[in-house]
Design a protein that fits this description.
4-stranded mixed beta sheet; 234 residues; 2 domains; alpha+beta
């Protein structure tokens, strides 16, 4: 197992030893992403509301899944390529770095590879079983995620523009949940909070953070039904 140690230098240690001691969501990328001519999206950085830090991504699929993980309430840590598994397959040395790592509030860890197309690349198919077995040995999870629902991605991308905590500040604590105690249209609830110029960002932030809930697998409009989490919105 390869990773970047606390001194900023690469290290290689046995997998179960690393899994017992290391928090991958706190580690920098074990290697970066090449910029390839002709690609529609260059590698970039995502500001994660979960951690308040920048997380690298190397493709549109990675960016989308990074964004979706950032929006999950149970996720408390995020990183890009923090670990690289290395093993022997006969005489051949195989190495693979899962694209994303997430730390869960219950202390669990999830490693994720993201598919940009509708098929599993041959190389990933060849390492998937090994990574699943390694993750299981350590009590972790390894997932290969298909391309995300484009409607969900579009909605969450819009809400992500309001993910910064500053967007929550213009409504007194508890008021948002009071207004959306019962499910009601987004525009109606926003108007009930006050001046919509000030309160709409608060509602969007509530939907991003999970304080409010709505069906994000359908286009988000002024008529979308919104409710406080744990009330009548689920």
């Amino acid at each position: 197992m390869r990773f970047i140690g606390a001194n900023g230098l690469p290290e290689q240690r046995p997998w179960l030893e690393v899994a017992a001691e290391l928090v991958p969501a706190d580690c920098p990328p074990v290697r970066g992403f090449a910029v390839r001519r002709g690609r529609r999206l260059a590698p970039g950085w995502w500001w994660a509301a979960t951690t308040g830090r920048l997380v690298a991504y190397g493709s549109a699929a990675m960016r989308d899944h990074l964004m979706l993980l950032d929006q999950e309430r149970r996720v408390v840590g995020l990183a890009c390529r923090p670990l690289e598994f290395v093993w022997r397959d006969g005489r051949r040395v195989v190495a693979h770095a899962p694209q994303l790592a997430a730390r869960i509030a219950d202390g669990g860890h999830v490693l994720v590879d993201c598919l940009g197309a509708g098929f599993l690349p041959r190389r990933l198919a060849g390492v998937q079983a090994v990574l699943e077995e390694c993750a299981q040995e350590a009590g972790w999870q390894y997932r290969v995620e298909p391309a995300a629902d484009p409607v969900v991605v579009a909605n969450v991308r819009w809400l992500s523009g309001y993910r910064h905590p500053r967007c929550a500040g213009s409504v007194r604590p508890g008021r948002l949940r009071d207004v959306f105690t019962s499910r009601r249209p987004l525009a109606e609830g926003t108007a009930a909070l006050g001046d919509v110029v000030r309160t709409l960002p608060v509602v969007y932030h509530g939907l991003w953070s999970g304080e409010l809930t709505a069906a994000l697998d359908r286009p988000l409009t002024e008529g979308t039904l919104v409710a406080a989490a744990g009330r009548h919105g689920r």
